[in-house]
Amino acid sequence: MNKQDLIAKIVKDTEVTKTIAGAMLASVLEGITKALKKGDTVPLVGFGTFKTSQRKARVARNPRTGAPIKIAKRRVPRFTAGKALKDAVK
């Protein structure tokens, strides 16, 4: 399921226009993104939790040349599925 499929599902379930459904989905995704940028967690009860975690700095190897490459530490987004989602997928 991609973004357009989600918009079509919103249109079908709520009987709003495709434009409004697209704006609603964009608003939700933007809100989650802004919260993660600030370092907040976004718990959606029954679905899961979006959060960020730190990756340590490390040294990797260029697969073509074998030369070492330094990779800086960084924050990455994480998603943990909630119990209801895990049970629904079983």
Topology, number of strands: 5
Taking Cα atoms only, what radius of gyration do you get, to the nearest Å?
Answer: 19 Å
The amount of helix comes to 40-55%
Q: How many strands, what sense, and barrel or not for the largest sheet? A: 3 strands, antiparallel
Computed structural class: alpha+beta
Structural key phrases:
90 residues, 3 helices, 44% helix, three-stranded antiparallel sheet, two-stranded antiparallel ribbon, alpha+beta, elongated
In brief:
44% of the residues lie in helices and 30% in strands.
Could you characterize the architecture of this molecule?
A 3-stranded antiparallel β-sheet has the order 1-2-5. The chain contains 3 helices and 5 strands. The model has no long low-confidence stretch (mean pLDDT 96). It is an alpha+beta fold. The radius of gyration is 19 Å and the shape is elongated. 44% of the residues lie in helices and 30% in strands. It has helices spanning 3-14, 18-38, 83-89; strands at 42-44, 48-55, 58-61, 68-71, 74-81. Helix 1 crosses helix 2 (18-38).
